Amino acid sequence: MNRIVTISREFGSGGRTIGKHLAEKLGIPCYDSELLDKIEEKSGLAKEYIAERGEYTPKGGWLATAFADRSLNGLSVQDYLWTVQRKLIIELAEESSCVIVGRCADYILQDQQDLLKVFIHADMPSRAKRIVELYGERDETPEKRLRDKDRRRSAYYHFYTDMEWGRTQNYHIALDSGVLGIDRCVDIIASLY
Amino acid sequence: MNRIVTISREFGSGGRTIGKHLAEKLGIPCYDSELLDKIEEKSGLAKEYIAERGEYTPKGGWLATAFADRSLNGLSVQDYLWTVQRKLIIELAEESSCVIVGRCADYILQDQQDLLKVFIHADMPSRAKRIVELYGERDETPEKRLRDKDRRRSAYYHFYTDMEWGRTQNYHIALDSGVLGIDRCVDIIASLY
Question: What is the 3-state secondary structure (H, E, C) of A70-139?
């Protein structure tokens, strides 16, 4: 049976980097941006839309877009994206052992026998420093950007899974990458695999 | 500077056992039941009261006991116990490196430089099995006992710390002892020390 590691992470916590390094160390694929390409291919939706709306609630909240969201065979575009994403994640997990970053994979694959569910978080200052290094300055403060991303990611997770995002009990291991550091997080997760 | 490991845990998750084994492995003291003895000595309160009321809200809720709770120099007995407990935990942390289980030590020592904050949890079935082995059967089902303990421990924590008990972001590492097993949890925490 395939062994899957799902990595849920706070924006700016380095969860994506941890996923990449972990996958290299274990010699298995890591699906993150690769997932975007595959979803784009399957769904026919623009990658920007997928990146933004495949993990976050719309900026104005659901209601603001409920009507704007054009309907495809009875589904809103958002729901259509969810179903494509969900199906693809299940296929990838059946294909081979792998690391999957974000996109509610922990929930989607929870009936998978051999699943290691990881959550990565970090203190505000470390995350602020990180996103400015990675994505540069914006008009909004990094803290404001982080709070907004967290709020929308958490709302998205709750909407589709009816579970609380970042709740200790939903993960086998949760790590503070700000204090422990990226490499140590990778080593610990690898030792559990 | 002393290095302190605080272990917060769900009832029946084996957090106490993990603390004991970890302390042995690191060759430092573990304060758990030892803490009860010291608090009894300092406070003059009965150990049963300390065990029950030093970590849990009263069964009937705060209000039920607010008036019954006799007042000592302006403090309720509950608050008096909190101040004694708090002072003792700070003294022990200044004395030597150690492992402290429960009693909001993570919050009380949060300004300590070298603090490793751990949370241990487990799925309901593992915890139910564990408490029946450790404490035997009761009239109430193990699940009912666990839900009650969790609720009252969480309420106590929130009352005195104004923080959310078991929230991922409050700990450096959170582990599912039901899936990972006691020994593996000990090894991981020791490797971080």
Answer: CEECCEEHHHHHHHHHHHHHHHHHHHCCEEEECCCHHHHCCCCCCEEEEEEECCHHHHHHHHHHHHCCCC
